[in-house]
Amino acid sequence: MALNITAVFAMFSCLTVSLFAITAAEDPYRFFNWNVTYGDIYPLGVRQQGILIDGQFPGPDIHSVTNDNLIINVFNSLDEPFLLSWNGIQQRRNSYEDGVFGTTCPIPPGKNFTYILQVKDQIGSFYYFPSLSFHKAAGGFGGIRILSRPRIPVPFPDPAGDYTVLIGDWYTSNHTDLKAQLDSGRRLPFPDGILINGRGPSGASFNVEQGKTYRLRISNVGLQNSLNFRIQNHKMTLVEVEGTHTLQTTYSSLDVHVGQSYSVLVTADQPAQDYYIVVSSRFTSPVLTTTGTLRYSNSAGPVSGPLPGGPTVQIDWSLNQARSVRTNLTASGPRPNPQGSYHYGLINTTRTIILASSPGIVNGKQRYAINSVSYIAPDTPLKLADYFKIDGVFRAGSIQDRPTGGGIYLDTSVLQTDYRTFVEIVFQNDEDIIQSYHLDGYSFFVVGLDGGQWTPASRNNYNLRDAVSRCTTQVYPKSWTAIYIALDNVGMWNLRSEFWARQYLGQQFYLRVYTTSTSLRDEYPIPKNALLCGKASGRHTRPL
């Protein structure tokens, strides 16, 4: 079997290079051949079925540079369909490769699919994850880092080391059991613990040398909980958030909401010994806590003393920290021009979209909705139905751009928007839990967040100068968050709750960014190797 997989990998790597000359020929190619399997894992001391990538849990990091072409051949050795999605990778003009069921057919068991991605005009820290079913609860995730090109200035010296730190809440139940609970209409119980890079308490360690500075790329890859990250006796300087270089603010602890990614610099400036790394849940009772170790190379002793304390249920503390995260206007991003050269605050918005979540019971089962619509997936990816003009799969405008106030109902919700418009989106959270939303294909400016109900007067307090640009934002309980977004990326893009059970039970929809143009400058054609399923089965992509 291994020989067959290797042969398939080699064949498809060669094939995709020849077929996909549409990407810029001068930009480098990086090749990845991954075999996805089940395997026993014991992150919290209990045997459970994990999803491994090339035998690893978490999966291997993807290292890349701005504009690199990533050729990622994924062989599915599971007994069920599988997809990987790329949290924060914008897939410019190419939502076919996004790896969610609204855009991409699943990889059948025993088959493979080659993703062709380009990290066009991007830098920063992101991650990939399995998007189908409830696979994310079994692993299959890993870090993505996009370095600046050599001649593009970075607003801090090269660190002595660069670590991926994947944190997240975790269940000891198999993903199949969790999925069965949700399918039966029940809610999931409280998680069993927190992992750092796939390991439980005291399992993860990071080696440092005294006097040197290190970069930690922290991503919350968990299923629902916001987490606070801190290091005993050490400060952290924030330098990057989901592709944006930030003002270099120093924190003693950092809230990382589910789905989010942050880069911090940590200097090993303390006496030589081992220090606790602590990750704890926010806004929960009880508070989950786990530890790792920052290990000095010349350490004189093990970790000692009490764990450093952190915030627990304080909302104002987190809100104030969120407002302090701002763009470094003078730093370069993926291009040499300063990040502040794009004056988003001077652009008139053409539309305001207000989105409100709600829980409810439909047909005797728990569901979640946005603007009263609880998303149900059709048998055909929406993007394929759009491309092939297949009727009966979705209806543009099947979700309103304002809360309706009505009861929850099931539909394949697609919100129609126009290409090259500048839009304001308000996430209104009337529930008593913190929420986190992600939009594929884009970064957006988080211009405002506050308690209570949003009104047009709320715009008076927007940050129209140096708001951070990112792809995942939190919305505090009984509060709102407002974003500005330039819809410059044609395609079908998933907007979802990062609270994974809510996403699974309908708290998501697709944003159709539409143009009548058929120019390659606006959108790439369907990939020649695209998998076809549902009502698209038997059709043809493009001539080979």
TrEMBL record:
Keywords: Glycoprotein, Signal. Residues 36-149, 162-299, 379-516 form the Plastocyanin-like domain. The keyword Signal applies. Residues 1-25 form the signal peptide. The keyword Glycoprotein applies. One of its GO terms (molecular function) is copper ion binding. It comes from the Eukaryota. PANTHER family: MULTI-COPPER OXIDASE, MULTI-COPPER OXIDASE-LIKE PROTEIN. Belongs to the multicopper oxidase family. This is Putative laccase. It comes from Lupinus albus.
